């Protein structure tokens, strides 16, 4: 049976890529959805941010109310995108290069930009059912994959002009409707998807077929990263951080001394940062084997992180961007 949860109405729904409050809030509409463009706001830079990425030297972040923020000044200041055709929550963003990018979110929305995020167009919108997409990844300017509620997988081979749903068929029963929460690339051109029930999915063919890895954890995995040496790190609820040095065949739990859920894991070489709710912020300098607290951690619930110039990290939260030195 597919789960039923509430529509987002508070902080937890906006934090962690709608990982809690909308990880199952699909409802059929009585009347067709009428998309409303994102409003321009003088306080847009304080808007909750759910995902962020680099588009060349530009930072692009997405979040609540269709707000997309851009920065061209080494992330010293941010401004709102000129035009976004939806005001629904956006949960994921990916760029193939400095100009071509995609964002996904509620109502199965897929937006595309060809000017580095200044203006966006709708490529897909499901006006009958709110079956959110939680993450998107593009391998190049033509091949991409988006994932979301109840194992929804969409792929494109033409830059998003056409999106095709791929039905995935796990060998193990009870896994066909897992929510696919996040995407991260492997070092060989494939992609991983974090999911519920401690599953990590892997695709070597641009999202068309998937293999299931069992981490041994029973909760939801919200994020992950593969390091340059092949080490896998995945994180999820209640401070759960798992590490695999053999391609996901075996896993060990890495203690963080925290029960705060992990929302993002980002690597710069073998340096790793883990961030999450309640200001969770841990660093590793030994390939993800051990983690330490930062000297001046944020008290905000963090949703995403990016490495910037000058040994800086950009942290994203319900109140916008937080610049953090190591």
Compact overview of the structure:
It is built from 1 helix and 27 strands. With 326 residues, the chain is mostly beta strands.
Give a structural overview.
The relative contact order is 0.12. Helices cover 1% and strands 40% of the residues. With 326 residues, it is mainly β. The protein has 1 helix and 27 strands. The termini are far apart. Strands 1-2-3-4 form a 4-stranded antiparallel β-sheet, with no helix packed on it. Strands 5-6-7-8 form a 4-stranded antiparallel β-sheet, with no helix packed on it. The chain has one domain: YVTN repeat-like/Quinoprotein amine dehydrogenase (Methylamine Dehydrogenase, Chain H, 7 Propeller). It is globular and about 45 Å long. The longest helix is centred in the first third of the chain and has 4 residues, at 11-14. The protein has one helix at residues 11-14; strands at 49-55, 58-63, 68-71, 79-80, 90-95, 101-105, 110-113, 121-124, 133-138, 144-148, 153-156, 164-165, 180-185, 191-195, 199-203, 211-214, 221-226, 232-236, 241-244, 252-253, 262-268, 271-276, 281-284, 292-293, 302-308, 312-317, 320-325.
Q: In terms of topology, how is this protein built?
A:
Layout: H1 11-14, E1 49-55, E2 58-63, E3 68-71, E4 79-80, E5 90-95, E6 101-105, E7 110-113, E8 121-124, E9 133-138, E10 144-148, E11 153-156, E12 164-165, E13 180-185, E14 191-195, E15 199-203, E16 211-214, E17 221-226, E18 232-236, E19 241-244, E20 252-253, E21 262-268, E22 271-276, E23 281-284, E24 292-293, E25 302-308, E26 312-317, E27 320-325
Antiparallel strand pairs: 1-2, 2-3, 3-4, 5-6, 6-7, 7-8, 9-10, 10-11, 11-12, 13-14, 14-15, 15-16, 17-18, 18-19, 19-20, 21-22, 22-23, 23-24, 25-26, 26-27
